Amino acid sequence: MVNCINSQLEDTMIRTFKYPLYPTKNQVVKLNHLLATQCELYNAALEERVGLYKWNKNSVSYFDQCKTLSQLKEVRPDITQYGTVVNRGTLQRLDRAFKSFYRRCKTNQKAGFPRFKSLSRLDSVEYRDKANWKIKEPEKRIKLLAIGDIKVKFTRKLKGLPKNIVIKKVNDKKWYISIVCTDIKPNVLPKTNNEVGIDLGIVNQVTLSNTELIEGQRCLRRSQDKLTYHSQKLANCKKGLNRSILDAGWSQLLQFMYYKVAEANRTIIGVNPQYTSQKCSRCKCVSKQNRTSQNKFKCIQCGYLENVDINAANNILEAGRALPDRTDLSVLECVGSN
Question: What pLDDT, on the 0 to 100 scale, is given for residue 253?
Fold first, then answer.
């Protein structure tokens, strides 16, 4: 469910902008080498943490490992040539993995101890500072230390102040850059007091309670790289493949909704979608027999006839309206799928 009331927004926002990169053949060689060096650094730092604890019951922190980077200049200039910032980003990634591990242990979740990474599993590098890279938006270039000026396709205008970047390799051939920007002014829209229920489905990926149907092809158009990846990875498991493709599309869609809703001073209210496709939005009768086909709903009690997804969206809208204190809710994980 989405309505137009939201908690007080901050004066500025943080957003991430993702653009395709078009490196030259020589730059591709350098980018692949960059990934290889960071993979080696990640594994070496993990080995140090494991070894110290195993033999001495000691721990080493992210800051301790950052201090050793200066010693690499003499023995491993191939790693340090790309700059300290990207090396610190790799060590920080490992540190986040350990913090997540400890957090899961404390909450009795499946821990998942940090693992050594192969090149196929380390497909991105992080620049967590403003050094060693420079955005040249008018020239449509990003300059990386030891790699040079890489062509960027700015599919939309960059906003705010660039703070850090992530360079990512996709499907072993495509490259992207994600730029995190701060100090972005929200595009607050005036209040309308309108509300709409949203159902995420299969035939129609998005259905609104105002009867608007949005087909999956339209929503997934910008998610083809992720969907192709899932398709190739799960090609031998059709059932799992279909679900993964749907989850990838829904996840991408919700990410877009989150920042758009926050920017416009709106609210997403998450509700439990259970039985919304079986419940009559008119007489409230719940029965599996109400759903006569993939997209047809006919209530066995009152005879109400409607599209399955529209009926579900109306139930989601009603469920959201019934939540207490919903005017005080900020953006939540949202919306039902069934």
Answer: 78
